[in-house]
Specification:
The chain has 277 residues and is mainly alpha-helical. The chain has one domain. The chain contains eleven helices and no strands. It is globular, with a radius of gyration of 20 Å.
Length: 277
Amino acid sequence: MFIKIYRWIKNLIIRIMDNDISGMAAQLAYFFLLSLFPLLIFIVTLLPFTPLTQADVFNVLKDIAPKETLNMVQKTLNEIMKNRNGSLLSIGIIGTLWSASNGMNALMRSLNRAYDVEEDRPFIVSRGLAIVFTIAMIFVFLLALLLPVFGKQLGEYVFTNLGVPNMFISVWEILRWVLSFVILFIVFLAIYYFAPSLKLKCTTAIPGAIFASIGWIIVSLGFSFYVANFGNYSSTYGSIGGIIVLMLWFYLSGFIIIIGGEINSMSNKKDDEECKS
């Protein structure tokens, strides 16, 4: 048993080095940065059509994202929204979605490399798929915001009628993390299943989705704790400290996501070998 685990980990490390995962994660971090503000602009523009506010968006992110990064992003987004003319939904939606899909398009290329396949879908199809993924992620993100808001209201109502309103507070602290994990898992599962340019079994996408969901939460919380308590980037880099932290966070996130793709690729090859035998 331990020998199999050792060999599996050894093969994963070899794939990480051979496929230059660190370099691919750096590329993802760059494209994530390019797509961040177009994505946030589009989400904030949709907020008036929901019961949510811009503060709700950043309240959800504050538990995971480093504080320096969150403050920088929020300040920049406020400046962008103040200087915008006209309605984004009626004028700039296509351009914004195209820019926001850069990160997803880069992720699709990274997953193709994890599976050792070339992108054989036409450019319009692959780019259109990236845009569809981006739109889907926007609505999943909005759903992730709505669930805690209405879930908390519903929970407080139920527990108050049961006569134990204080119990809900401790229960909700657990439920909100469970909800976050489930939503992340569904998002990663969909990405790992549809993004690569080959047909996959849904089951082969599950291991990587579980790893990426757990790994991303742990790495994000750990990195946020490190930045808050040990890494004083503002003193070292001045005003660009927030950007440095943001890029490092994106780099770690990209690293985790690509490793999830490598795990799925190993699982898919194992299933193919079992089918042949």
